[in-house]
Amino acid sequence: MPPVSQAPRRYFIEFNAAMLLYAAAVVGRKFILPGIGDPLLRDLILGSPILPICLMALAVLRFYRRMDEYHRLQLLEALAFSAGVTAVVSASWMFLEEAGFPHLQMFHAMMVMMLSWAAAALYLGWKDKLSEGHAGRAIRSVCLTLAYVAAGTATFAVVGMAAGFATPWWELALIATALFIARMGVFIFRSKSC
Amino acid sequence: MLNKLRDLRSEHGWSQADLAEKLNVSRQTVNALETGRYDPSLPLAFAIAKLFKLRIEEIFTP
Fold first, then answer.
1. Is B41–A69 a contact, with Cβ atoms under 8 angstroms apart?
2. Residue A29 lies in a domain
3. Which domain holds residue A25?
């Protein structure tokens, strides 16, 4: 069994490799599709992002199996919390739609699950830091990360505006995500243990 | 459950990271065990007892 301390690094590499593949599939199919006439091949290309999504799920599963028992418990607690939040939100939204709220897709339920999972994981990690007396350090680290992501994204937007391009919001979100991942990478690869 | 993990670790002059490495768990797990926020599984309790050459009930008390 590989050392537990290596688990976050391996997960970071595996998950982000799958993310890159996903981005390549989503962007690439737009360029490839216009020249495809065969319906079967067209469907296969349209569904190509499914493979990297499965790889992402596999990366999470492999990470789970490499974790120690305490972190497994934390991950499952966060997952249980997110499942509960998703159930409540999706069931409530069904009734809100009858009251005129916009109709949402299944994709939005996944977004709710991912965000509530991340929030629960952050909360559990925060509790650890508090018990270790490192709350101040954790707050400083979060503030630095937010400042780094905000400054990098703003710089990109300003440079784009100066060059006469209006950067769309999704492109800025992509830049912010990439900066966040880079920051996490530095944090994970610098730390001695998870 | 109470435990003497912090005392035993100090006696051996190990840091939490040292003990974590010997048990193949994370440092956070050692901290959670020492502060009583987490009770170990039976395999981990046996691994701890073996490391300190003690019986489980000499380290953990209900």
1. yes
2. yes
3. 1-67
